[in-house]
Amino acid sequence: MKEMKVQRIENGTVIDHISAGKALYIAQLLHLAESSLFVIGSNLQSSKLGKKDIIKIENYQLSEAEKQSIALISPSASFTEIKNYNVVNKAQAVIPELIMELIVCPNHNCITNKEIMSSCFKMNPRNMTLQCAYCEKKYTIDEVTFKKLL
Amino acid sequence: MKNLISMRDLDKADIIKLLSTAEKIESGELKINIEGKLAALLFFEPSTRTLFSFDTAMKKMGGKSLIMTGTGTTSVSKGESFSDTLMTISQYADIIIQRSPIEGAARYASEVVDIPVVNAGDGANQHPTQALLDLYSIMKTQGTLESLKIGMVGDLKFGRTVHSLCQALADFQPEIHLISPTHLRMPQHILDDMDEKEINWKEGERLENIIKELDILYVTRIQKERFADLDDYKKVKGSYILSRSMLNDVKKNLKILHPLPRVDEIDTDVDATEYAYYFPQARNGVFTRQAIIATLLGEV
Q: What value of ipTM does the predicted structure carry?
């Protein structure tokens, strides 16, 4: 019998198929350590990805903004909502074309870092680069900071 | 067209329409009367030529300008937010023409106010009216914008005019030669843009290798104010100076453009040659800006 590496949850959310090594970053982004009951599995075997991470969070529903952030960090991620140990909803991460408020522009001379205002980035899915709608600079995901981490 | 913020916002048809309007204004075929209209020229960064050029453009069409330079004389220095300043000024003026050292400031201004906003330069980002007057100058001197060989030399990293010009040329199948010191290369995001538009571009460090093939040579100043460290500025200051002797055997139709002010990157004895076009280029700026203002005010 296959050993359960990450225990089941009764109610909550499973974030599966996370790119290996990204789960801790996502947990930090969601501030899980502050109040949530959660488990993380890292470097688990995956037929799709080779290796993957997984996060299971008790009594937690992801907001759309959180799903967008996770999609940017790990486009392969999937979200499963659990009720009474049953799957009630499952969805694949979708990379948004326009990302409002979630990201801090790394350009210190960008207006979004000078005024009290929302940031706005356009995602180019072909090369996975983000372009600031204001200063027009382009960045990779690894070069930007997500606002909730501040 | 409600605002002019970035060359990225304009397609080929928009560009051709603006240039055609400028041409009609210059020839006298089109007479615009904007008497009673007021432009707020908000220049949060030093400028002489662009400021005067816009002011001249307004006055030649019968309009007037409110001119604000720096932030010392405004409520910004008293701690007023930028958006409040803009909102207040928009109650007086019909159009805002803004230069700022902060990148994206013009885009933000266009979201805050209901009147048209023109970006007269935002940090190292965009300078679309300069790009349009450059295109107008190229069109006037070459008779076409299509399939030209264009060299850009000098500070390509911080020089926003060349950033906007690369984007402005995107729809006209140019061959662009970028000549700069390694650490003043064209930023990667502009190179990526050119790749996306399938523009044929090449990089080099020596002007002599390419000058004989060019239709247009666009020279830029190494800008002191863009350097945090003065020593870094001194290291590159003298690089890429265009002298008269370098113009032997160039193409007959070559024209040298420069956004001005010039420091020492073009020797003054080049001015008398048939290739120098930087002063007429500045004059073209007035017609182009008249066309932009008239279009945004709904007069065309």
A: 0.88
